[in-house]
Amino acid sequence: MEKPLLHIQGLTKSFDQSGPVVNQVGFDVGKNEIFALLGPSGCGKTTTLRLIAGFEHCEAGEVYIEDELVESPQVSLNPQKREIGFVFQDYALFPHMTALENVAFSLREVDRKKRPVLAEEVLCRTGMEKYKHRMPDELSGGQQQRVALARAIAPKPRLVLMDEPFSGLDAMLRDSTRKEVRAILKKSGMSAILVTHDQEEALSFADRIAVMNNGQIEQIGTPEEVYYHPKTQFVAQFLGRTNLFRAHADGTDNVETRLGPVKINREAEGLILCSIRPEHLTLERCKPNGKETGIITGREFRGHDITYHVLFKGDKYIVHTDNRLLFDVDEHVIVKPLEPAVVLNQKA
Ligand SMILES: Nc1ncnc2c1ncn2[C@@H]1O[C@H](COP(=O)(O)OP(=O)(O)OP(=O)(O)O)[C@@H](O)[C@H]1O
């Protein structure tokens, strides 16, 4: 495998006696890779980003950029020397400078005369050349964010760090800006780390995701891996809706459950906790048969798909179907798995 651009191991940081807020964090980011740190508020994402940037100092662990040690308890390379670009939630553009001046300002290392030409070229790449003479308050949120991105990538940093860059935008603009920013980063061959608490954003924006909880990484994988093959209950629940159930496994990849026999994604033994996504279950209409049938207790119609809430043999299930499977509340159904359930790791 090609050497990673960024390598982090055992990174640990505490602010006070209450224990580490970043605890033994380790991951790699490849060249041209977009990586996301995803987790709930307060789990340590921003602190991890600030440690990479050099705005905080760690008490244990190491950060390497292109094999250069930039952060450890003994080493703390000046943030400017790390060659990192930043994009924050509040854009942080200088209000008294035009878009072009904002971008040119980031090119302090470049000969003064060449700055406007280079700045214009980068604004062009982010589709903002038309607005180059506008002041930040004459631009929409999405446009300001694209100028902020142009400013971050203009000096050709080794890595771009983005902290909740889209959360100030409304839903429609957020989607389109996200797509554009991803395309710009990919076209420029940049590596980036996105910090977000929004799972949909991480799933659609990143090549790989690290799911963080309580200062630690619970799982690293592609969007498909973390969504469809969560390793822990936290990852299963944080990445979207899911159905959890316990079962006794007998060393095979089949378990007997109240749904009947269910396939699991690996051989297991003993009491196990499993997760199955709502879209991996389906419903079949049936005649009422006492406790053997389920009943639809609720439905959420969302146009292209429908989510049903089902009570089946005393357990509640969420089942997600396309809009051709129509049931009414109180109808009798049975719940059937379409895909194997995922066996979760359980903490001892
Ligand atoms: N300068 C600081 N001094 C003391 N505690 C801090 C400091 N910065 C962060 N913390 C604490 O560290 C923990 C992790 O914060 P951090 O900002 O890294 O989390 P986060 O996952 O980015 O959350 P959010 O999405 O809310 O920003 C929190 O409990 C926070 O209160």
TrEMBL record:
Q: Where is the secretion signal located?
A: none
SUPFAM superfamilies, sorted: MOP-like, P-loop containing nucleoside triphosphate hydrolases
- Select a single GO molecular function from the record's annotations and give it: ATP hydrolysis activity
Q: Which GO terms describe its biological process?
A: quaternary ammonium group transport
Q: Which Gene3D superfamilies match?
A: 2.40.50.100, P-loop containing nucleotide triphosphate hydrolases (3.40.50.300)
InterPro entries cross-referenced by the UniProt entry: AAA+_ATPase, ABC_SmlMolc_Importer, ABC_transporter-like_ATP-bd, ABC_transporter-like_CS, Mo/tungstate-bd_C_term_dom, P-loop_NTPase, Transp-assoc_OB_typ2
List keywords of the entry alphabetically.
ATP-binding, Nucleotide-binding, Transport
Transport as a keyword? yes
Please indicate if the UniProt record lists Transport as a keyword. yes
| Domain ABC transporter residue range list | 6-239
Q: Which domain of life is it from?
A: Bacteria
Report the SMART domains cross-referenced here. AAA
Q: Which GO terms describe its cellular component?
A: ATP-binding cassette (ABC) transporter complex
Any matching Pfam family:
TOBE_2
Q: What is this protein called?
A: Iron(III) transport system ATP-binding protein
In its UniProt entry, the species of origin is given as Gracilimonas mengyeensis
